[in-house]
Amino acid sequence: EAPNFEPRTERLVELLARKTTTTLQNNFDALTALLTRSAFEIQVRALLASRREPAAECVLYIDIDRMHVVNDNFGMHVGDELIGKVAEVLRKKPRPGALAARIAGDRFAIFLPDCALEFAQQIGEVLRRQCSELTYVRGEGAVQVSISAGAAELPESQNALAHGLANAELACKAAKDRGRDRVEIFQDADQNIMRRHTD
């Protein structure tokens, strides 16, 4: 005999289920199961605010190379499939406490706590290698997979995450300019990147 829930309990269960669904939709990207940009920003800010003493924190900004070529040659569904495959690589935590998000179409960010810039660059290299191994055959052609990445330290500033992400994005653009399928780090002294800043 199935237990008869009170109508009130039933409504409550239904409300909770709906709330959970909404929370999942707001926090996680449907295609990749990675954090959404807003959930990523909220979680990173909370982590930074809870820090007792300052530590080096870095962020990686990752962009899939030649995504439009994949979409044009194979169709958007294969483009989505590719985004999903790259996200799978990024979901395997590259270090404890790392947070990965899909921040736009084929762009991702990874927050790396307690991480020096050189180490962030090495992590970027590992991810770049793993993504290049994803290249696969679809119908008549090969779907070439590569990523460009930029690494930046979070500056000691009021809006550390926004600045760090912007700098990592600049470094990622420099990686694209320098031939794609590579990792660049943001350094204030880097004239090439600084030029982009002023463009």
Residue fraction in strands = 15-25%
> Uncertain regions: pLDDT < 50 for 5+ in a row?
none
Q: What is the chain-wise order of helices and strands?
A: HHEHHEEHEEEHEH
Helix percent reads 40-55%
Largest sheet: 5 strands, mixed
| Number of DSSP E strands | 7
Q: What is the end-to-end distance? A: 72 Å
Reading side by side through the largest sheet, how are the strands ordered? 2-3-1-6-7
Task: Tell me, rounded to a whole number, the average pLDDT.
Answer: 89
- Count of alpha and pi helical runs: 7
Q: Measured on Cα atoms, how large is the radius of gyration?
A: 20 Å
**Quaternary state, please?**
single chain
Report the principal-axis shape.
flat
The SS-based structural class is alpha+beta
Walk me through what this model shows.
It is a single chain. The protein is α+β, with helices and mostly antiparallel strands and 199 residues long. Helix content is 50%, strand content 18%. It is built from seven helices and seven strands; from the N terminus they run ααβααββαβββαβα. The strands form two sheets. The chain has a five-stranded mixed beta sheet, with helices on both faces. Strands 4-5 form a two-stranded antiparallel sheet. Helix 6 (160-177) links the parallel strand 6 and strand 7. Helix 3 crosses helix 4 and helix 6 (160-177) packs across helix 7. The radius of gyration is 20 Å and the shape is flat. The termini are far apart. The model has no long low-confidence stretch (mean pLDDT 89).
